[in-house]
Amino acid sequence: MIISKQFIFDAAHFLPNVPDGHKCKNIHGHTYHLTVLIDGPLQENLGWVIDYGDLKKAIAPVIEQVDHQLLNNIPGLENPTSEMLVVWIWQQIKPVLPLLKRLELYETPTSGVIYEG
Ligand SMILES: Nc1nc2c(c(=O)[nH]1)N=C([C@H](O)[C@H](O)COP(=O)(O)OP(=O)(O)OP(=O)(O)O)CN2
Ligand SMILES: [Zn+2]
């Protein structure tokens, strides 16, 4: 069974490697939507895979690092495309949540990335 929880954070970024004149060379902000999907067995007595609250506690330290920050200032996110950011998030979450199955990260309502490690 796969369960999911969504996290929303705001951050600024610019993309340093795009050509001059590209709109994303300018600093701008997004309200990111991150969905974390966990694949695991149903615990029969509890009737759930894992507690959504425990999921929230596990993800909170990652969200705290990026919320209301300029992503480019964070080590490893010097070129903070959606693709680079989702890998950076995965690398922190997977060790603490081995059942992590998939991340979905949207930086606008129409632009996002899906990553499964
Ligand atoms: N493959 C990628 N392409 C782009 C990324 C990215 O991370 N990966 N990022 C950007 C910019 O961050 C930009 O802010 C988002 O681009 P875009 O979807 O074009 O944003 P719009 O709001 O203009 O999109 P609409 O089409 O108006 O919804 C660019 N490309
Ligand atoms: Zn952007």
TrEMBL record:
Pathway: Purine metabolism; 7-cyano-7-deazaguanine biosynthesis. Keywords: Lyase, Metal-binding, Queuosine biosynthesis, Zinc. Its EC number is 4.-.-.-. Coiled coil: none annotated. It is an enzyme of class 4 (lyase). Its cofactor is Zn(2+). One of its GO terms (molecular function) is 6-carboxytetrahydropterin synthase activity. InterPro entries: 6-PTP_synth/QueD, 6-PTP_synth/QueD_sf. It catalyses: 7,8-dihydroneopterin 3'-triphosphate + H2O = 6-carboxy-5,6,7,8-tetrahydropterin + triphosphate + acetaldehyde + 2 H(+). Pfam families: PTPS (PF01242). Binds 1 zinc ion per subunit. Gene3D superfamilies: 6-pyruvoyl tetrahydropterin synthase/QueD. Belongs to the PTPS family. QueD subfamily. This is 6-carboxy-5,6,7,8-tetrahydropterin synthase.
